[in-house]
Design brief:
iron-sulfur; binds adenosine-5'-triphosphate; 2 domains; Rossmann fold; iron; alpha/beta; 12 helices; 35% helix; GMP Synthetase, Chain A, domain 3; Mrp-like_CS; 379 residues; elongated; ATP-binding; eight-stranded mixed β-sheet; three-stranded mixed β-sheet; single chain
Length: 379
């Protein structure tokens, strides 16, 4: 009888996923032992590191899964910590190789990659990226988000993902929020959020490389990168490290913002990247009193960027959506609750979700790619 009960307990443990790695703890060899004495199940679990921030979550998941097995009256969980050998084995089983390489550039990798760019700061690029990531995760996609704005990182706050990552044998397990794996410079600053980052160009490249190679991303459907504004070092490093990443340009409706956004988009011509499209943010919204459309930041910027880039690059660069100005989007960013999660039916959420659906399911091909050829004929 106890054999049958143990089988049931094993089956229950196989449903418990490690919250960071998102694989069954049985596959990860995290179950040290299990036994049943008079209906009381005792489960010992190996944690990867002693200060594992997920210890309580793992414990409660084990208690819930094993406690639901008929015949189990109580569950006791004991935690132990893996030794170096076990961690190495775990690392090898997860990564499949030892050297630090960027998995996204390996042949056969199917992760869709989007680098979100803007011409200038403050147009809402980070807010759009964070909400797109959460919307994609809410659609069941496995999503990673790199805050490539090394100096001005803001993604952890926008998603409330400010806890430090767990390290397993030099591999960084990224914190998660709303189902999105997030890495940012915050994870590497002992002085916390207000500590400035004083990096020169080559250091920025190295930091980005580390975000991509040393972080355990798992099998991602989509990787989003929140670039710093403009066409500086990080935008170029991204193109070098992830040449398959497509650009998404964010602008406001304002002509001045649109003009600089075009420059950010034109970078694709030099880097030979594809342009997935343009998102206009802080667009027209209905006046709360009279319902008339309010164009707080002018109008037409997104359309202008889309049309100009289409013409200049000789390829379709669609306007993916116009996200209305919404104070709740700003408030959600301030308190780490993205609007698409807190109010999925808000007009801004609806647009962001549509853009997320489009990008998350987009077929990969030559569309949107500047071929870098000049038409033959009269000069
Ligand atoms: N659609 C919107 N409606 C209202 N407020 C918005 C909207 N989009 C962004 N904001 C607010 O605008 C400000 C700038 O947004 P955000 O930080 O996302 O811009 P950014 O382009 O990433 O800036 P930077 O690159 O300089 O960090 C934030 O306070 C944000 O909450």
């Amino acid at each position: 009888m106890s054999q049958t009960l143990l089988d049931l307990i094993d089956a229950a443990l196989a449903t418990v996923e490690d919250p960071e790695i998102r694989r069954p703890i049985t596959d990860l060899k995290m179950v040290k032992s299990r036994e049943v004495v008079d209906g009381v199940a005792r489960v010992a679990v190996w944690l990867t590191v002693s200060g594992c921030p997920m210890r309580d979550t793992i414990t409660s998941r084990v208690v819930e899964a094993v406690g639901a097995v008929p015949g189990v009256s109580a569950v006791e969980v004991e935690l132990d910590v893996m030794n170096e050998e076990q961690r190495k084995e775990l690392r090898a089983s997860l990564v499949g190789h030892d050297e630090r390489e960027i998995v996204f550039t390996k042949p056969g990798n199917l992760t869709r990659m989007y680098a979100v760019a803007s011409g200038k700061g403050g147009v809402g690029k980070s807010s759009v990226t964070a909400n797109l990531a959460v919307a994609m995760a809410m659609q069941g996609l496995s999503v990673g988000l790199v805050d490539a704005d090394i100096y001005g990182h803001s993604i952890p706050r926008l998603l409330g993902a400010t806890e430090p990552p767990t390290m397993v044998e030099g591999m960084i397990m990224p914190p998660q929020a709303y189902g999105v794996r997030v890495i940012s410079m915050l994870a590497f600053k002992p002085g916390g959020v207000s500590q400035p980052v004083a990096f020169r160009g080559p250091m920025l490249h190295r930091a980005l490389q580390q975000f991509l190679a040393d972080v355990w991303w798992g099998d991602l459907d989509v990787l989003l990168l929140d670039l710093p504004p403009g066409t500086g070092d990080v935008a170029i490093s991204t193109a070098q490290l992830l040449p398959q990443a497509e650009l998404v340009v964010v602008t406001t409706p304002q002509t001045a913002a649109a003009e600089v956004a075009i420059r950010a988009g034109m970078l694709a011509q030099q880097t030979k990247q594809r342009l997935a499209g343009v998102v206009e943010n802080m667009s027209s919204f209905p006046c709360p009193h009279c319902g008339e459309p309010m164009d707080l930041f002018g109008s037409g910027g997104g359309q202008m960027v889309s049309e100009t880039l289409t013409r200049e690059l000789g390829t379709d660069v669609p306007l993916l959506g116009r996200v209305p100005f919404d104070v709740r989007l700003r408030e959600g960013g301030d308190n780490g609750t993205p609007l698409v999660a807190s109010d999925p039916d808000a007009p801004a959420s609806t647009v962001l979700t549509e853009v997320a659906t489009r990008l998350g399911t987009r077929a990969r091909g030559l569309a949107g790619m500047s071929l870098g050829i000049t038409p033959a004929g009269r000069l």
